[in-house]
Design a protein that fits this description.
Helix content is 72%, strand content 1%. The longest helix has 32 residues. The chain has one domain.
Length: 608
């Protein structure tokens, strides 16, 4: 089974090369079928490896270059459950996106499929590599493919602007990561993650270590779109092709959080572990700010894809809170939450793509009631909104419950209330848009004040509106939503994930596995997690989101005194936050610089 590890990375990259070399005389369905088969094969490989890793984690050294005396010179892939779960999610989402694309574009050559497969290979390599420089190589390969996919409709001004913002900001993030790698290499003389961790363990916390940590975390914050490093994301999501948005929202952003977890627990835990309480406060605080700002920006949006983009920012904040608690239980909850949330959000993007395919628009007010002809898509969209709110049995409620319970145990009882409020604020606009577009609820576009954010429009990926929806499109959207729902029904899902999270967070066990070939002992399953309170909270959040959506639809019928009170209390917050998102890349670079300075100052003050 170990030989499957390099194949999981090689298959999509080799398939991309073969597809690029294929004659253009191939019919389009030939490109589609080949790409789907390649991505599907990778999904099967990753699933088999995931099943095997739950019994025994595996290591593959390229060329047989095994470490000697704790010194590693070769390149290595490490198969452990958390990394393989994310790799499997990436393969599943790419396969689903390629299936959806079968009828989505009117015309497409082989370039789209090539980029999607390169993107897949880079994401899987990023998840599995145990080498710091290889991590950066896959980081860059992933980014280059993402830049190209974001600007795939390069003839459109919005697409070009979104791709440019994406490329500039993420290139700066990559430079920060590379700078951090250089500093770590200069201190340890090693690039293997496990070897670096052993070299740094017990070392003094000096300026070089802190600077390297700041650069690495800031670079990964850019990838994850943590405030104030997030400004590139909404423009990119609004203009990128819909199948690409599924990957960005479902897996691409959360890989930045994965990199933070891998970097800290594998390398810096031994040297910074004494300051865990301070680190926890900083990470939870950054997550809370991100969650709140993203939620505030959701409400005034009328461009559905941009709305889902800001929703992604908000939920990244909640994932960062779970990760920043630095606890196996919270980390297990975070993995459940981000995977099931990614599936729900992917389904919502696919539903938005169906709107674009049928109506040539994703403007909430412009499509008022026009979606009545596709009620099944409307049902999927509304169910997706309830999934964002954490309605049981969607798996999102499981992850949120675990994070909330662990946060309360660690002295952050307000986290549960924050996550519920953020879930309501991000789900309500989705429910509002679905009710208006697919059923015509609300007083109509003429009665609604159009915000600045709502005026943006996107060119569809098809040349004309279609009267029917190809079955593959809505089946794919339903499949993503269904998997997220089924995940919430898996018996003892949190219990099964906690040992995997404990293994991921165990620096010594990881080093023994990679450097000495010692298989970690299988951890016993913990007691079952009480999720009844989380389920009740999920129902309350879903009901609150429905009420908030109804207020958004019929706010014009509220008494004038209530409307004025809401405007006075919330208007400045919405207006101020919206003004920050100017669309100018220079402004975004300035905010990134401020973010690095603030993050560096906080970490230096607490760790130095």
């Amino acid at each position: 089974m170990r030989v499957l590890l390099p194949l999981s990375v090689a298959v999509p990259l080799v398939a991309a090369a073969l597809l690029l070399a294929a004659p253009q005389s191939w019919v389009r369905r030939g490109f589609d079928a080949f790409a789907v088969a390649a991505a599907g094969s990778v999904m099967v490989i990753c699933s088999v490896l995931l099943a095997g890793s739950t019994r025994e984690p595996m290591v593959y050294w390229f060329g047989g270059w095994l470490p000697e005396g704790g010194v590693a010179l070769g390149l290595v892939l490490v198969a452990e459950p958390i990394a393989l779960a994310l790799a499997t999610l990436a393969a599943f989402l790419v396969t689903a996106s390629l299936v959806y694309s079968w009828h989505f574009f009117d015309t497409t050559g082989n370039l789209f499929h090539v980029l999607m497969l390169v993107f897949l290979g880079a994401m899987i390599g990023f998840c599995l590599t145990g080498d710091f420089f290889s991590l950066f190589v896959f980081f860059e390969l992933m980014s280059v493919a993402a830049f190209s996919l974001a600007g795939y409709k390069v003839e459109e001004e919005g697409s070009l602007q979104g791709a440019l913002n994406f490329a500039v900001i993420n290139s700066i993030g990559a430079f920060l990561v590379l700078s951090g790698i250089a500093l770590v290499y200069g201190r340890t003389g090693a690039l293997n993650l496990a070897q670096i961790g052993e070299s740094l363990a017990g070392a003094p916390v000096d300026g070089l270590v802190i600077t390297a940590f700041v650069f690495l975390i800031a670079g990964y914050f850019v990838k994850a779109a943590v405030v104030p490093f997030h400004f590139w994301l909404p423009d990119t999501y609004a203009a990128a092709p819909t199948p690409v948005c599924v990957l960005f929202a479902g897996i691409f952003n959360v890989l930045g959080l994965y990199a933070i977890a891998r970097t800290y627990w594998t390398m810096f835990d031994g040297v910074l572990g004494a300051e865990l309480v301070n680190l926890r406060t900083i990470m939870v605080g950054a997550g809370a700010v991100t969650a709140i700002l993203g939620a505030l920006m959701c409400w005034p949006q009328r461009h559905i894809k941009r709305l889902l983009g800001f929703s992604t920012v908000s939920h990244v904040g909640m994932f960062l809170i779970g990760l920043g608690l630095f606890s196996p239980v919270a980390f297990a909850g975070t993995i459940v939450y981000l995977m099931t949330d990614g599936l729900v959000r992917g389904s919502l993007f696919l539903c938005a793509g169906i709107l674009l395919h049928r109506l040539r628009s994703v403007d909430e007010l412009g499509c008022d009631g026009l979606g009545r002809s596709i009620p099944f898509t409307g049902i999927l969209f509304l169910l997706g909104g309830l999934g964002l709110a954490g309605l049981p049995p969607f798996g999102t409620f499981v992850g949120r419950a675990l994070i909330g319970e662990e946060a309360a145990r660690l002295g952050f009882p307000w986290v549960t209330y924050l996550m519920v409020a953020v879930s309501v604020l991000t789900a309500a606009p989705v429910l509002r848009a679905g009710a208006r577009v697919f059923w015509g609820f609300g007083p109509g576009a003429d009665y609604n004040h159009r915000s600045e954010a709502e005026g943006d429009e996107e060119e569809p990926e098809t040349t004309e509106a279609h009267e029917t929806t190809p079955p593959l499109m809505w089946v794919t959207a339903a499949a993503l939503l269904g998997v997220s729902l089924v995940a919430g029904l898996v018996p003892d899902l949190p219990v099964r994930l906690v040992p995997a999270a404990e293994l991921f967070l165990d620096r010594g066990a990881y080093a023994d596995l990679v450097l000495r070939g010692v298989t970690p002992h299988k951890l016993p399953l913990p007691p079952g997690a009480p999720l009844l309170e989380g389920a009740v909270t999920g129902v309350i959040a879903a009901l609150a989101a429905v009420v908030a959506a109804a207020i958004g639809l019929w706010h014009a019928k509220l008494p004038a005194s209530i409307r004025d009170s809401i405007t006075r209390s919330l208007g400045p917050a919405f207006g101020g936050v919206r003004a920050l998102h100017s669309g100018h890349v220079g402004d975004y670079v300035a905010w990134l610089t401020v973010g690095v300075a603030v993050l560096g100052g906080l970490l230096a003050a607490t760790l130095g």
